[in-house]
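Database export, one record per block. Field names are fixed; values are copied verbatim from the stored entry.
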Amino acid sequence: MRRDSGSKQRTPKKMTRMTGDQGAVLTAAADQALADGLRSSLRGEVIDRGHPGYDEARAVWNGLIDRRPALIAR
């Protein structure tokens, strides 16, 4: 947190969470449309759930976290 000269310490803003632990779920058509749109506008790799490297790309260093994003953009 930052302090401004002469002012009180600021409190962090509250973060809002989506209802449900998994977040929003896209339909297959919406998922594909989003992937195609990103692929046409990004130079990097866009990995969707059907990609053979999806499971490897979504893994993080903390093994307790098991998230399944709709897309991964690199």
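Remark 1: Residues 15-19 have pLDDT under 50 and may be disordered.
Remark 2: The chain is about 25% helix and 10% strand.
End of record.
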